[in-house]
Every structure is written in C-alpha cells, then in structure tokens.
Amino acid sequence: MQIYLPIAEISVNAFLLLGLGGLVGILSGMFGVGGGFLMTPLLFFIGIPPAVAVATEANQIVASSFSGVLAHFKRKTVDLKMGTVLLIGGLIGAYLGILLFNYLKSLGQVDLLVKLSYVVFLGIIGSLMFVESLNAIRRAKKTGTSAKRRKHNWIHNLPFKMKFRTSGLYISVIPPFVVGIFVGVLAAIMGVGGGFVMVPAMIYLIGMPTKVVIGTSLYQIIFVTAFTTLMHATTNFTVDIVLAVLLLVGGVIGAQIGTRIGVKMKAEQLRILLALMVLAVCGKLAFDLLMQPSELYSLGAAGGH
C-alpha cells in the first residue's frame, strides 16, 4: 500500500513504515533508548531526505518513549530528580542544536552534517559499548557478580552536590547537566533521543544503577524531543505528519513489547546486542557516504545554482 508523504515528497509503503516504527519501539522498550539513532538512518535508506527524517523522527521518539516510560513508572524505576537535571541541560542543548541546524540548512550542508554525525557517533559509541559489554560478561563469569561501578572519583569531588534517592547517589549536578546539554544538541541535529549517549554516560560516568537509568533516560527524552520537534516544525517546516503518524503507531505498540523482553534479559546481554546493532547501522551509513552517488551530474548541477 503506497502512500504519498507531502513534506518528504516521495511515495512509501505504509506497512514498511509501520514495521520500522514497531522495530524501533521494541528497541526503545528493551534498551531505554529513543531508537532514533537506528530509525533516522533507516529512513535515509528508504529515501527520506535527511532534514525531514531528523525532524519527523524526533516526533516519533516522543510517543515511543512516553509509552516506555509508563511501564517504568509502574516499576518505580524513574529518578525524577535526576531526570529534571538532565532535562534542563537537554532543553538548552536542543535550542543551540536547532540554531546550528538552521544555519547549515541555509548553507545547504545539513544533509552531509547529519550523515557524518551519525557515522562518527555510532562508530564511537558502538565500539565502546561492545568492548565494555564483553569485559562485563567476562568479569561476571569470573566473580559471579555484575560489573562494579563508581570508579570515577573526580566526578564525586565536584561542587553543587545533590541527593538522588531513587538512584542512591549523592553527587554534583554538573555531570548530568552537561550530559543533558550534549544530548539536547544531538536531538536537534540528529533527530535522536540521545539515549545511546545518555545511558552509557549515566551508568559509567555518574554511576547510576542500570534499572533506574532506562526509565530516567526515557523521561528526559520525551520533553527534549517534543521541544525539538516543535522547533523544527516552526522554523524549518520539515516535520512530515503522515510519516510521523505511521511511525508513531508502530512505535507505541513496539515499546510495550520491548519493555517486557528487556526485563527477561541480563543487562550485559542487552548492551552487547545494542552495540552490535549500532555498529551495523554505522557500517551501512559509512559505506553509503563513501560510495559515489549514482546521479553525479545532477548533484553537480544542483550545487551550481
């Protein structure tokens, strides 16, 4: 069933979009990531222009994250205080990211920026997570316990300390605030919830328990991506509602399934699976960037106008 997407200006199979939304929703529920870092490249692969994919995907993440966070609220695995610190940083970062995005769009360089950002970030994060997960599995086999955390003493020496009861932490608000800003910039430029940066940062840098990280990450993602979508819609006019609705329906159903699967698996297994997926998408994007475009001359002509 082909449908025409008015903003993206292409026809796409509706069931393909529903399926992609469902797949990313499952990942969102399992890993506590918005799933945008996989969905946005998948949209590039089926021919959606990067500027439209980024703005519309931010919209879909709001829904799948909201669906996922409800399940975590029931289990009391959301640290609202920590989430709010991350959120304040996230909104500042998102605003700065939109300014940069609009500037590059005016120069005609935004598609390249988006794709390059993906290759760099997915490559770095995927590799780090893969290595760390392997080490964690090895350590767990040796000692029979999960990996230990909180080795970063300098983090604990920073000022402006606050008690985060749900996470069992008493740390400075500076690291989560900075993580929030960084994630906000990524949300604006890459159309991602930033969970793939935030989840590792909260576990390894801040020392939060894995089970609290996922719900807290989703809570923050909802507001930052909603703000990003609003900014893109009002300044760029690149949010495709038809595309968003189809991804949204699939995403909400998928997130509920993913949350159930995630509970049954060990944290280390989840992380290694996520790392492999990240690296696979990164490889495909890098390959597409390095390959010569098929319409070389038409691209050259477009650049000359």
Automatic annotation (TrEMBL):
GO terms for cellular component: plasma membrane. It comes from the Bacteria. It is found in: Cell membrane; Membrane. The chain crosses the membrane at residues 12-39, 85-104, 116-137, 181-205, 212-231, 237-258, 270-287. Its main location: membrane. Keywords: Cell membrane, Membrane, Transmembrane, Transmembrane helix. It is a multi-pass membrane protein. The keyword Cell membrane applies. InterPro entries: TM_pro_TauE-like, TSUP/Inactive_protease-like. The keyword Transmembrane applies. Coiled coil: none annotated. PANTHER family: MEMBRANE TRANSPORTER PROTEIN MJ0441-RELATED, MEMBRANE TRANSPORTER PROTEIN YTNM-RELATED. Belongs to the 4-toluene sulfonate uptake permease (TSUP) (TC 2.A.102) family. This is Probable membrane transporter protein. It comes from Profundibacter amoris.
